[in-house]
Design a protein that fits this description.
alpha+beta, five-stranded antiparallel beta sheet
């Protein structure tokens, strides 16, 4: 059991994609899951590797099992030794902090630190601005065929509205991102949806957590006429299951 949980945590993107399929299969509506917003994920360790004279490859390992890679370009050459010094400093001081916390602290206070020599301070600030820039998580949507088989989508107008909503994934990202820092399950019926493009549909969404900290969101999108009690139950159970997996020590 322990090995299985660790595998799921390491492959969280595949796990959340499967969770969206499960939501759709159980509800017959659209199942939607969003991976953790990068501002909320927690640093485990960072590695920096000299890539070219003025470029470095940065690898972020997080407690949630998410691995991020990024190529950063500087306006001058930097040695591998200096990169190791910067990485050692960040790992020793900020392991266990969220990326948003690290960015705020490191840019605000690093000039007062004497751990790094002065010539590395400006490089560290520049690198950290790029590394710890935050963005919403990835979105996974399943169940279009399930939705199109419903009587609510028997006319072409409704089908076009649904396809337009799915096509604009950033729309759903923005909506779930608003929810991802909240507690509990939320229900938005038709005109109650905060985004105009969603006002012809209903959304039932909930956050999932690592421990007690909300880090992402899942949901069901369907017609305004749906079995809300059943849908709420499905979302609640799925969110709890994901939370249990991510919180397992």
């Amino acid at each position: 059991m322990h090995k299985k949980v660790e595998l799921l945590k390491k492959d969280i993107h595949s796990f959340l994609d499967q969770a969206s399929m499960m939501l759709s299969s159980l509800s017959h509506y659209l199942g939607v899951t969003m991976s953790p917003n990068t501002s909320s994920i927690t640093l485990n360790k960072i590695e920096m590797i000299k890539y070219r004279d003025d470029q470095l490859a940065v690898i972020l390992f997080t407690d949630e099992g998410i691995i991020q890679n990024k190529i950063i370009t500087l306006d001058h050459e930097i040695s591998q030794k200096n990169l190791n010094d910067i990485a050692d400093y960040i790992n020793s001081k900020f392991s266990g902090f969220t990326l948003e916390e690290i960015k705020r602290v490191i840019i605000g206070e690093i000039t007062q630190e004497k751990v790094l020599c002065d010539k590395l301070i400006s490089d560290t600030i520049r690198i950290c601005r790029d590394i710890f820039s935050t963005s919403p998580g990835n979105i996974y949507i399943s169940g279009l065929s399930e939705m199109l088989s419903l009587p609510d989508f028997s006319d072409m107008t409704k089908i076009k509205e649904l396809l337009k909503t799915i096509e604009d994934k950033q729309l759903i990202v923005r909506l779930l991102d608003k929810i991802s820092s909240s507690e509990g399950t939320q229900v938005f019926i038709g005109s109650e949806n905060p985004l105009d493009e969603m006002k012809k549909f209903s959304l039932i969404a909930s956050t999932y957590k690592e421990g007690n900290r909300p880090i992402g969101a899942i949901g069901i999108i369907g017609p305004t006429r749906m079995d809300y009690l059943h849908a709420i139950s499905i979302v609640d159970l799925t969110a709890s299951y994901i939370t249990d997996i991510l919180s397992y020590k």
